[in-house]
Amino acid sequence: MTYREGRFWQPDVTVATVVVAGGRLLCVEERVNGHLVINQPAGHLEPDESLLEAALRETREETGWDVRLTAFLGAYQWKAPETQRHYLRFAFAAEPERHDPARPLDDGIVRALWLTPDELLAERERHRSPLVWQAVADHLAGHRSPLSVLQHLP
Q: What is the CATH number of the domain that holds 23?
């Protein structure tokens, strides 16, 4: 039975931030199914939360960094081959503002780290998904849209 035939289907809506400072990217190393993988600060949209709020929250929870969102990079759709889950990711460019090194990081996050684009690319086999590099590649290529293209209606 397909979605149009009445079967419920919904993608996982996620957010991610590409935070850049001094030519380095803020990344997280996290444990997923027993493997250490690399990702941007990223996570799921929560009920009653805007995409912008989710991006700020996830970055803070996973890295201890408060950031300022500067642009919308894009929306990315991907189906995970191992789980068949569908993801719809909204990625943002951001600049770091304040760091709280005492803040406990989310469960599963081993550490936050700053990598150059070359270092991140060299770790491609450990990326949590192809969405990690695609957002960085788009950022490096200068893709930017104003945050105002996203509307959150009460």
A: 3.90.79.10
Q: Report the DSSP beta bridge partners of residue 71.
A: 93
Q: Which helix (H) or strand (E) holds 72?
A: strand 65-79
| Distance from C-alpha of 66 to C-alpha of 93, rounded to nearest angstrom | 13
Q: Per the domain annotation, does 151 fall within a domain?
A: no
Identify whether 5 is part of a domain.
Answer: no
pTM of the model: 0.92
Task: Please answer whether residues 14 and 88 qualify as being in contact, where contact means their C-beta atoms are separated by less than 8 angstroms.
Answer: yes
CA-to-CA dists, residue 31 to 38, 72, 94, angstroms: 9, 27, 24
Q: Residue 1 burial by CB count (10 A; 0-12/13-18/19+): exposed, middle or buried?
A: exposed
11 within a domain of the structure (yes/no): no
Is 71:139 a contact under the CB 8 Å cutoff? no
Alpha-helical regions (H) of the chain: 51-63, 117-122, 130-140
pLDDT tens across 104-116, in order?
999 999 999 999 9
Share above pLDDT 70 across residues of the chain, in percent, rounded to a whole number: 95
| Nearest to 110, CA basis, from 66, 62, 56, 44 | 62
